[in-house]
Amino acid sequence: MVGRWWEWMRGKKPLVDAFFAAPLLLVSLPGMLYGDPQVGREKLAIFTILLVVPLIWRRTYPRTVLTVVGLVSAVQCAIGIIPLPGNIGVLTCVYTVAAGCTLRWGLGALAVGELGALLMALRYPEGGDDMRTTFVTMTAVVAGTWILGLHMRTRRAYLRSVEERAARLERERDTEVRMAMAAERARIARELHDVIAHNVSVIVVQADGASYAIDSDVGRARQALEAISSTGRLALAEMRRLLGVLRENDDAGAYAPQPGVSQLEDLVTQVRTSGLPVEFAVDGTPAAMSEGRQLAVFRIVQEALTNTLRHAGPKAAADVCLRYRGDVVEVRVVDDGRGAAVPGDGRGHGLVGMRERAAMYGGSVRAAPRPGGGFEVVASIPTREEAA
Questions:
Q1: pTM, full prediction
Q2: Which of 88, 222, 266, 308 is the most exposed place for a label (fewest CB within 10 A)?
């Protein structure tokens, strides 16, 4: 609400400046109504209006308004009209030019203010001491106003630089996230290569067996054809995902077999040897899953335990649970570490990778600090293509 109000005010400069010039006009009103009759109340009113009304555009046209107010003050001094409350407008213009224009124009505004101080000291005081006192006092006021404007100009420039830096960092962070997603897709493409190669190899072997057995053992040939059919469907589903994965500048080495659900025990044992107590449990009857799904489950557990090792603290412990519920496997990794107290730098991409993997198979990942302390990662992945 405050931000929107501030943005509205920044877009209505004349209206806001009129609001701040109104008190000066009110202060000048008694002088216009009950001023010295010898001077002429009409003159006082005219000069007051000429000094105050231009302030409505002081931020829209700062140099022009300074020129107008300065000339009106000079004419006022020349014809001998006493200083008015509206003459404060000169100081306001000096501040505005120093705060909103270049340093060269700011120095020009300082010169105009000092000239006004000199004219005031020469025109109105009586006696040398009074003239020096008036000049020194007015010089101090003008210089203080100019320094305040210069300070505001420097502060605004600093705030603009901070905002630009924040915007640049935000763009860089978005770029890093996109690069991390691209790298994760490339790694997934390498891993799915093994899955597809395995399925195609099975199809080739079964096809060769069926061709040899079709004349001598029709039943075995039929089994081989059924295996080819199921394996082909699985490979086709994996290939459809692979077509959506970009794989650029891939300089990885030789491919190696990728882990699955059966290797989770080895992963838990490895993490335990690193010093993190881990409990592993399986709830429900394990369902048959494609190698790509098993790999996604393995990597999600691996990344969650890696984050626990890095951030949970020296005395943390973790629980890993695989829960099979119909056509969905739920992966839950919970630790009792520092949770929300862990400072983040915004550069980690592990959660991005986990969500990418789960989304490939129609699943989802929820990762957040726990209310009582610690961190929780819950992933839900369909076990079959039909379920996804």
A1: 0.47
A2: 266
